[in-house]
Amino acid sequence: MKIYTKTGDDGNTGLQGNYRIGKSHPRIISYGTVDEANAALGIVLANPLEGDIRNVLTKIQNDLFLVGADLSNPNLNDVKNRVSLEMVTNLEQYIDKFELELPPLTNFILPGGDPSAAQLHYVRTVVRRAESQTVLLSEKDEINSNCIKYLNRLSDLFFVMSRLINKRKNIDDIPWKI
């Protein structure tokens, strides 16, 4: 089977359930940005990372496929929706665990430090954009609302993990200065 089908040459694309919509539809932009976040996360994973961080990020890459699949599903009654509150709770547990290693924040910090931490800060911003675009989609169409919760918590986790990578490499947070 060829990778190209030519079915999207008219500016439309297919969704689950044989629906076709324009490629500029908020649904496409939403799950496309989730895909972008996943690709950016792949760049982070191309770096040497400690086992627990690598394991969590690899799990998240797989979870992001579920988020994208749910966002590409225009039929909420479909049992294929898989993003669950348990997935959100798992992110919260990672945040709580990793924060135990970090000093409390006393000021805003700038993205940077170790290249992996800086890249993860970038992924965090892509996830924030995916969340905003998913909220915009939810104002137009029904979606699995757990996707918004998951993306919201995920950006928080990436912030914490960025700090954790720097801490473990003995790199101080970069304070924001006026």
Notes on the protein architecture:
Keywords: ATP-binding, Cytoplasm, Nucleotide-binding, Transferase. One of its GO terms (molecular function) is ATP binding. It comes from Nitrosopumilus oxyclinae. This protein has helices at 26-45, 51-71, 85-99, 115-140, 146-168; strands spanning 12-15, 19-22, 109-110, 174-175. It has one domain: Cobalamin adenosyltransferase-like (Hypothetical Protein Ta1238, Chain: A). A hairpin with a 3-residue loop joins strand 1 (12-15) and strand 2 (19-22). The protein has five helices and four strands, in the order E-E-H-H-H-E-H-H-E. The longest helix is centred in the last third of the chain and has 26 residues, at 115-140. By secondary structure, the chain is mainly alpha-helical. The mean pLDDT is 96. The radius of gyration is 18 Å and the shape is elongated. Helix 1 (26-45) packs antiparallel against helix 2 (51-71) and helix 1 runs antiparallel to helix 4 (115-140). The strands form two sheets. Strands 1-2 form a two-stranded antiparallel sheet. It has a two-stranded antiparallel ribbon with strand order 3-4.
Q: Mind telling me the CATH superfamily name?
A: Cobalamin adenosyltransferase-like
Our estimate of the beta-strand percent is 5-15%
Straight-line N-to-C gap = 57 Å
The biggest beta sheet reads: 2 strands, antiparallel
Residue windows where pLDDT falls under 50 for at least 5 positions: none
